[in-house]
């Protein structure tokens, strides 16, 4: 769903028109198509915003962060929720800054998995503990339970929760989610920059 990088590099980022959900557009394209487009446009804007914030936090990694845009692509329908998608982006961008592996599942992706599993069967104690732990990591400003309750789960089953986290992140691993070889034409959002990835 992400727009091609050359277009992104030559423009001022993504500023999508807020008119795709007008009655005329819905009638022309159909509700399902408009819903997909609306989600894609929203995710583009949220991704760009999280990249800008990450660059402000870690200006020395500005080039890597700018070119991290493809890492933020996802087809998980639960990522249509802004809170969830932003949490997912933040973790991946933090990994880029620290040089960590970007392929394993993020805390937000594990939360999506736990949410899905809870619709099939009640989550047992270790799974609930994992859900609470991942939620706290992905969405620190939005507590789902009190810190005391979360600590209670951790105290009862930390080892099992650790194992479940490792398994879940590995199961959710995305093999191609890496920066790979970066080629830059020296334009970031249409602005000429001194990017270290410009071909010599």
As laid out across the biggest beta sheet, the strand order is 1-2
Quote the distance from N terminus to C terminus.
31 Å
The biggest sheet, with number of strands, parallel, antiparallel or mixed sense and barrel status, is: 2 strands, antiparallel
Shape, principal axes of CA atoms: globular
Structural class by SSE content: mainly alpha
Mean pLDDT: 84
> Count the helices. How many?
8
- How many β-strand stretches? 2
As a percent range, the share of helical residues equals: 55-70%
Tell me the β content. Answer: under 5%
- Which sequence of SSEs, written as H and E, runs from N to C? HHHHHHHHEE
Low-pLDDT stretches: 1-17
User: Taking Cα atoms only, what radius of gyration do you get, to the nearest Å?
Assistant: 19 Å
In terms of topology, how is this protein built?
Layout: H1 5-10, H2 23-29, H3 31-57, H4 62-66, H5 82-98, H6 107-118, H7 125-138, H8 147-171, E1 187-188, E2 191-192
Antiparallel strand pairs: 1-2
Helix pairs in contact: 2-3, 3-5, 5-6, 6-7, 7-8
Keywords:
single chain, 200 residues, mainly alpha, two-stranded antiparallel ribbon, 8 helices, 2 strands, 56% helix, globular
Structure description:
There is one protein chain. A hairpin with a 2-residue loop joins strand 1 (187-188) and strand 2. Helix 2 (23-29) packs across helix 3 and helix 7 packs across helix 8 (147-171). Mean pLDDT is 84; it is low at 1-17. The longest helix has 27 residues, at 31-57. The chain has helices spanning 5-10, 23-29, 31-57, 62-66, 82-98, 107-118, 125-138, 147-171; strands at 187-188, 191-192. It is built from eight helices and two strands, in the order H-H-H-H-H-H-H-H-E-E. The protein has a two-stranded antiparallel ribbon with strand order 1-2. It is mostly helical.
